[in-house]
Design brief:
Globin-like; 9 helices; elongated; mainly alpha
Amino acid sequence: MASIARIAPLLVLLLAQGCATPPRSLYADLGGRDGVDAIALELLSRTSDDSRIAHHFRNANIVRLHEKLVELICVEAGGPCVYSGASMAEAHAGRGLTEADFNALVENLIDAMESLDVPRRAQFRLLERLAAMHGEVLAPPRPRQARDDAASPPQDPTAAHRSGR
């Protein structure tokens, strides 16, 4: 009996932990599908009004961009979505995006989440996951293949024949 009395508090703690509510997912903290949709809409609205980066979106299909943005945020937040868009590297290749462009979009995202009262911890968690895409979004241009003859002027292929060589 003495041994049961000694482990009883431990058993109570273990049982209580087993019944504890699991931590909320980031997706839930963002407000689920409705919250993610609102974040995407607010981000696009702010971005279209941002003179620093609006020109990058001038010719975009905004409806499709909104759809892919919702999918991306949903997936990154652990929601029940599938991202069906291009990879970040493919989607941003050749667009000439700069670090300043990336930072402006992040500022707009933060402002969008603040305006929607997204909890600060959820904001940080989402930003941390999206920050991992930085290298893909701003991938440096591929270096050109160096040509051996790039430094010398073009040769006239008939010159050797004309000089008798």
